[in-house]
Design a protein that fits this description.
The chain is α+β, with helices and mostly antiparallel strands. The protein has six helices and eleven strands.
Length: 211
């Protein structure tokens, strides 16, 4: 009888191993059929994130949603509690809320739960200068500006400009706030009004010379 029980246990183990790297999860069969890199990835995720089989599947799907299409391996925990996942020749940073993925970043761009490209404009601190009267002997206010490359201006989106205006321009009290581009052109917010931006030729302090 004892030998028969041991035999049945061995057969059961073989059957389970034949089902793939995540035999106990509800979606294992479906995901194995759909993704040839699922089984090893699920195994790595379960171990690296220390989650259940079903939770590993949800992490897997979140990462697939970010465009990963190869084995997810070399999973390590960062000092801030997030995880580094190496896949497709790239390191992704995954943050968890309990056993659920809360965010995925590639570099400084957020990929999950929605794609939000990093705003380079927010990396710059404003340079603040005094504004003098016409004779140059009396301070009548202050202005502020940042300097960016032409490539950064070209890649700037409306959302990037809006974020800059709301956080750096609105309520600042400066006579103007400008984004000066290499070459002298740029965007000026006269009166630090976030709703009013003019593009044109700027002077070295960001004042609009010609729209």
């Amino acid at each position: 009888m004892k030998k028969r029980i041991l035999y049945l246990v061995a057969v059961l183990a073989l059957l389970l191993s034949a089902c793939g790297g995540s035999p106990g999860s509800a979606m294992a069969e479906e995901l194995s059929a759909k993704y040839d890199f699922y089984e090893k990835s699920a195994e790595n995720i379960k171990k690296g994130f220390d989650v259940s089989l079903d939770d590993a599947d949800q992490v897997f799907l979140a990462l697939v949603d970010c465009g990963i299409s190869s084995e997810m391996g070399y999973i390590t925990k960062n000092s801030d509690g997030s995880f580094k996942v190496y896949a497709s020749g790239t390191d992704y940073t995954v943050s968890m809320d309990g056993n659920t993925v809360s965010s995925v970043f590639l570099g400084e761009d957020q990929l999950y739960p929605e794609y939000i490209p990093h705003n380079d404009l927010m990396d710059y601190e404003l340079t603040v200068k005094d504004v003098l009267n016409g004779s140059g002997d009396t301070v009548i206010g202050q202005c502020a500006y940042i300097r960016v490359s032409a490539n950064e201006l070209e890649e700037m989106t409306a959302d990037h400009l809006r974020e800059f205006a709301e956080s750096r321009v609105e309520g600042s009290g400066y006579s103007w706030v400008s984004i000066i581009v290499t070459g002298g052109n740029g965007i000026c917010f006269p009166g630090s009004d976030p709703a009013f931006a003019e593009y044109g030729k700027l002077d070295e302090d960001g004042s609009l010379l010609q729209a």
